[in-house]
Amino acid sequence: MAGLWAAVMLAHLLLPEGNGLRSALGGDARVWAVVGGLAGVVAAYVLGLSRLRARVAPVAPIAADAPFRPAELDRYARHILLREIGGPGQQRLKSARVLVVGAGGLGSPALLYLAAAGVGTIGVIDEDRVEGSNLQRQIIHADARIGLPKVQSAEIAMRALNPFIEVRPYQRRLDDATASLIADYDLILDGTDNFDTRYLVNRLCVAAEKPLISAAITQWEGQISLYDPARGGPCYECVFPERPLPGMVPTCAEAGVAAPLPGIIGSMMAMEAIKHLTGAGTPLRGRLMIFDALYSDARVIGAKKRPDCPVCGLSHPVA
């Protein structure tokens, strides 16, 4: 381009006025001089910018077990101040890998709080797309993202909240073909709304010896527990050995649900996850919490491992 510009300028300077070639090139060298000057300024800017960039060392991704950056220390300061979490607990959160099954009502608050808390790697699996009817309770999504896959919408919200985490979206249904995902994570959260998936997730977690936090909601009531037979607790099927008959437990789409209820129970899921990962407090292992939002009542009942459980009774006998 520089050579072509120089040839045009020479033609204007050397050829006599009125020459056909000179007329075809505009007839005036001053126009081309201005163009050349502007092009020179742009070229100098680009060259200078590239040299400055070359001096800056590329930012390497920080490993999960690497020290915290100053911005992370500031972000997680309220956690680090807690005696039960502190710096070691926050490091365990950063090194943890958590898979959330379902990016709906329960998954939305759970995912947001896991991201905010600094869980280093968060997987989310869901095959659905965002619909307008979701937005009454599924707070991780937004009106502008209607039509997007839920996992993509969730990833956008989580990365906007905390750029220091890794998000792994899986737009698919969890089934036997994708069961290998379970082995890649330290803890599984199940917030799905159908019994087929709940029993499947439980079976996969028992086989992989992974702890499972499972919750469910309907209308005004929710429940949550930590199922961990590898460490002496019951599995989901120990507590719910038989699936309810069709129509006995309607879904939220069939029976409705109060908007804040999944936020309450989903936040409890995130809280139980943080407790489990950091070793803080007493988890809901072997205990089932039931929350009635209509009457502001919460109760906890004991749940025991069943020796005859077809899922965990044989592979994990009672200690």
Q: What would you say this structure looks like, in words?
A:
- The chain has two domains: 2-52; 70-302, NAD(P)-binding Rossmann-like Domain (Rossmann fold), CATH 3.40.50.720.
- Helix 1 packs antiparallel against helix 3 (29-55).
- It is built from twelve helices and eight strands.
- It is α/β, with parallel strands linked by helices.
- The N and C termini lie far apart (80 Å).
List the helices and strands and how they pair.
Blueprint: H1 2-14, H2 20-24, H3 29-55, H4 70-75, H5 77-80, H6 86-95, E1 97-101, H7 107-117, E2 121-125, H8 150-161, E3 166-170, E4 187-190, H9 195-208, E5 212-218, E6 221-227, H10 236-239, H11 252-255, H12 260-278, E7 287-292, E8 297-302
Helix pairs in contact: 1-3, 7-8, 7-12
Q: Which features characterize this protein?
A:
319 residues; alpha/beta; Rossmann fold; 2 domains; 8 strands; 14% strand
Task: Give a summary of the structure in a few sentences.
This protein has 319 residues and is an alpha/beta fold.
CATH class of the largest domain: Alpha Beta
How many whole angstroms does the radius of gyration measure? 30 Å
Unreliable stretches covering 5 or more consecutive residues: 56-62
Based on secondary structure, the structural category is alpha/beta
Fold-level CATH name of the largest domain: Rossmann fold
The shape, in one word, is: elongated
Straight-line N-to-C gap: 80 Å
